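Thread: adenosine monophosphate complex, take 2
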Amino acid sequence: MSENIQKKIEDLREELHQHNYNYYTLDEPTISDFEFDLKLKELQELEKNHPEFYDSNSPTLRVGGEITKNFPTVQHQFRMYSLDNSYDFNDLEDWEKRVQKALNKPVEFVAELKYDGASISILYENGKLKEAVTRGDGFQGDEITPNVKTVSEIPMQLHGDFPDRFFIRGEIYLTRKNFDKINKRREEEGLDPFMNPRNTASGSLKIQDSAEVRKRGLSAVLYQYISSEFPAKTHWELLQKAKSWGFHISEQAKLCKTLDEVKAFITHWDTARHQLGFDIDGIVIKVNDLSQQRSLGYTAKSPRWAMAYKFKAEKVETELEKVTYQVGRTGAITPVANLKPVLLAGTVVKRASLHNEDIIKKLGLHEHDFVFVEKGGEIIPKIVGVNLDKRNPENPEIQYIKTCPECGTELVKIEDQAIHFCPNELHCPPQVVGRMIHYVSRKALNIENLGQETIEQLYREKLVENPADFYALKKEQLLPLERMAEKSAQNIISGIEKSKEIPFEKVLYGIGIKHVGETVAKKLAKNFESIDE
Ligand code: AMP
Ligand code: ZN
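Output below.
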């Protein structure tokens, strides 16, 4: 009996590994996502009832759930070097000359995209994923194996003719689509959005709960085989082999016979990168022949056989139409530059963040200036300078506002933060509404159906002005509101009713006391049972 179950479990694991391979490596799935999920659930159920057949490489571990309090530090058996940077074709030509001179032979290159994420080193033993470690300082990093296993593009079980033991390095990154999804969810939960996909990817790898990591939807690409022996003569062959074992390698990598081909590759991707769906910050060029790589060796910091070519951040000029000011839930004022729409890095840009008064002063911004706008790794573009040649001398300097644009109250400035605040906490509309939106957000009272729009309507109609007012609302008061269906009104009322059963810590977080975030709220709730206490 038990043997039958063991066989069933093993067969299912093997089958699911094969389907993962078909899907992620061959891009040729043979079953539907639904069928896959059914099989995965079946395996999960069997594993739960038979923990004696645990396997650290089971496909079920992809869904996460393992919690790591502290990631162990691990020495890299092979150091993870940095790359030398070049910024123009002259730098590249100089590098080629140095390489040619040292080798005195013709040299071929492999040109690859420089993925902008977090680098990772993964050890495989007997075809199984054994250990995954972050780059750290290059000598040692954090072991984050459970988190890396949640990344679908990283195989847990290899195929075909793979060496017994080797490391493979690559990049964990976030597609822009998944990055936007994460930020959309954060917005709904009343949290600040993340700044860029790169930091979010590396931050995600350090989350303690691997089930949360899974939700981030990370991607991976592998670009370097590392071992003391190589099963091939060139880097290019190694990439093809890695692919045949089940690794996701970059489709765009190109074997280049000459530096001119490398330059053409760079020129192409400098513009085509905006259509990629993920961020790259340059191109990496590697000497293809592994024996040539060996004779070139390393400097103190980087391999002599590789070079990174960094793209310049794209910069365009446009006219500043006006500066407007937003008031946040905490009363903080954010100045925003409204721009004449302009195409930048593949998207139309109409606004740029100015952060605070000091930044505006530093730029010396005048009304209707022509400004240079740049998009680096951040999603929100920034103004990096003013074209003084085009300034109309009659245009006055931008004057920072003195009073709140929403309620007219005089602003106060907290010196060490360089930020202005509207002190009218109780009656400034965006602050009042913002607090109520925070109160109903998912991590707080989680009142579904009661969204921003409805809260704004209710506030305009003077039906609510703080979270306590929600509990006095009646369905009859909701129905006259614009576009309010009977069913939605009922859902709102029952959502509010349901929220009364929510744990005290969420209430504490939801009422938005200064300095009481999720963690502090949890601690407070453990020690006190009610607000009065
Ligand atoms: P840097 O951080 O500027 O020293 O650049 C080196 C980093 O580039 C490496 O640590 C990798 O994380 C990253 N990288 C991205 N794509 C590649 C690639 N195709 N080959 C090698 N390194 C890459
Ligand atoms: Zn105000």
